[in-house]
Automatic annotation (TrEMBL):
Keywords: Membrane, Transmembrane, Transmembrane helix. It comes from Limnohabitans curvus. PANTHER family: INNER MEMBRANE PROTEIN (PTHR38602:SF1), INNER MEMBRANE PROTEIN-RELATED (PTHR38602). This is DUF2065 domain-containing protein. Pfam families: DUF2065. The chain crosses the membrane at residues 7-25, 45-63. The keyword Repeat does not apply.
C-alpha cells in the first residue's frame, strides 16, 4: 500500500467529517460531553488518547 499526498488529504477530510457530525447533529449533547471531558484528570485523557492511537495503528496494520 502506498500513501501519497492525495491519500493524506482524503484521510484528513474524512476525519473532519466524522469530527463535525456530532456537534452538527446535537450541539447541546456535544457541549455536555465536552463539559464531562473537562473534569477528567490528565492521566485519564492521556490513556484515552493512547488507546485511540493504538487502535488506529492496529486498523492501519490490519487494512494494510
Amino acid at each position: 500500500m502506498s500513501f501519497d499526498s492525495d491519500t493524506l488529504w482524503v484521510a484528513f477530510g474524512l476525519m473532519l467529517i466524522f469530527e463535525g457530525i456530532f456537534p452538527f447533529v446535537s450541539p447541546h449533547g456535544w457541549r455536555d460531553k465536552m463539559a464531562q471531558l473537562m473534569v477528567l484528570e490528565d492521566g485519564q485523557i492521556r490513556f484515552f488518547g493512547l488507546v485511540c492511537v493504538v487502535v488506529g495503528l492496529l486498523m492501519l496494520w490490519w487494512l494494510g
